[in-house]
Amino acid sequence: MSTPIYYANDRPHIGHVYTTTLCDVYARSMRAIGHDTFFLTGTDEHGLKVEQSATEQGLTPQELADRNSEEFQTIMSTFEMTNDDFLRTTDPRHKKQVQAFVTKLLEKGDIYLGTFEGWYDEGQEEYHTETSARDLDYTSSISGKPLVRATEKNYYFKLSAYQDCLEKLFESNPKFVLPQSRKNEVLGRLREGLQDVPISRTNFSWGIPMPDDSEHVIYVWIDALFNYITALGLGDPESTEFAERSDFWPASYHIIGKEILWFHSVIWPAVLTALDLPLPHCIYAHSFWIREGRKMSKSMGNFIDLETIESYVNKYCLDAWRYYLVTQGPLGASDADFVSDKFQDIYTSHLVNTVGNCTSRVTAMIGKYFGGVVPSESQDGERLVFDGFDWPEKCKNATEGWVAGMESFSLVAAFEAPMALIRDIDLFINDTAPFKLAKEETNQPQVAAILYQCIESLRIASMMLTPLLPNKMNEFHHAIGVDSNQGSFEELLSWGGIQEGTTITKVALFPRVDQ
Ligand code: MSP
Predict the structure, then answer these.
(1) 90 in a structural domain
(2) Is 461 within a domain?
């Protein structure tokens, strides 16, 4: 699974952190379930934009790329991302393989030399068809600048030859592009007909040279898309990377933003097909964060930049930031508004009042009534069951919901499963009132069973929440004497994992924060 590789002409902002966090949560979940997982991210360092930004700043393109790539690598550790590799497109291992792939496409006739004229978005380095240029009113939807009429002698990729193959792909594999509404957009554009695409440039030099024709550099998008397979060594079967990583292809998910879906869902599968390589299982295109109702843009200066993100992390904690991003973000077809008041509300109601309150309530009662030692849920060898609260069954259902949600990348639905379980535990405590029962010595077995069932259900909910809230859940596991790294997923999620007699301590995971 992969993020897009991020342009090295810019500094990281919420968009980059969002996509990477989604992937991190998914990767951690897949590892927990027991799937072999390879999580890839990196920086896209070639192209006109990097060359121009470097010139403006009095740097060489390589110096600028080094500086910005380093910042992206730093945020991977600041935000505790568990990526297995960080690919830089200026890395020789990548460049060598891109040239090998392009050579293969030249030999097969899928790349040829020709002349091209079209509408060009200079900022995006992207050509538009006549129809799409007209729809855009001949203006870039990203920068707002006019599209320019450009002519170039170029190497082309024979995209038009893949029209039928791509249409069939979309028909036979309805989940190739998600969400569904995005797939329909691509299909609509696809049905307008495909033209061959230029894949080389001669107006600047910061890129990977075309094999045997160094006047041309390979178009940055072709160079960048290959990252998904060069990181796995697919262009160099002699390499140790190939030996160790080639089984990770095809990817389960390429997670991207909606603005780069065309490249990923049309051009990329056509290139892979031309190379006789299998296709990724799914291209998942999320929507955009906007801020307090307005589009974020450089000109408005309202991007949620690293400094702003860090202020939230410092105020609320990293897990709270991850929680807000993943559960309230633009995972579906609509954009999501980043609103400070909403952040505060979600933090308070979901994390302080639900996860925090329930874990502290249950650990405190075990402390108070059982000296901090986990009691038994059985009396005379028989489990006590409370009406309407079959906890092993509830936990099993929640786990199944979580796994199904995670595997289909429905992260919001997935995390609703443990959250609903925790709300249910609160309800159970209110219903059975162990704090009242505890007043009578004879009720001791009931109080013991209620609290065992609460702590055990909380433990199971916490296993599901760990990929999203890794630090807080580890703190919780430590307090309840659980090692979440020991045992298979089935074992960790089965009823009865917490042993009677385990000593636990009271926790306060999410302190109240004043706005
Ligand atoms: N370099 C290309 C991708 C090449 S992949 C083979 C690129 N880079 S980028 O730095 O511009 O990053 C784009 C990604 O950042 C988007 O796909 C998306 O993941 C994320 N976002 C950028 N702005 C965003 C928002 N406002 N909201 C959410 N994510 C957005 O494109």
Answers:
(1) no
(2) yes
From 86, 84, 75, 82, select the one nearest 14 (Cα to Cα).
75
Distance 4 CA to ligand 1 centre (A): 7
Q: Residue 389 domain-assigned?
A: yes
- What is the position in ligand 1's atom list of the atom closest to the CA of 6? 10
Ligand 1 binding site (Cβ under 6 Å of any ligand atom):
4-7, 10, 15-16, 18-19, 44, 224-225, 227, 256-257, 260, 288-289, 296
Q: pLDDT tens across 251-260, in order?
A: 999 999 999 9
Alpha carbon of 287 to ligand 1 centroid (Å): 10
pLDDT at 116 over 90: no
For the chain, how many structural domains are there in total? 1
Residue 254's SS3 state is strand
Range of the domain at 344: 339-492
Tens of pLDDT, residues 68-114: 999 999 999 999 999 999 999 999 999 999 999 999 999 999 999 99
359: domain CATH number is 1.10.730.10
Q: Is 167 exposed, middle or buried (0-12, 13-18, 19+ CB in 10 A)?
A: middle
Q: Tell me, in angstroms, the distance from the centre of ligand 1 to residue 257's CA.
A: 6
Rounded CA separation 95/78 (Å): 28
- The answer as to whether 12 is a domain residue is no
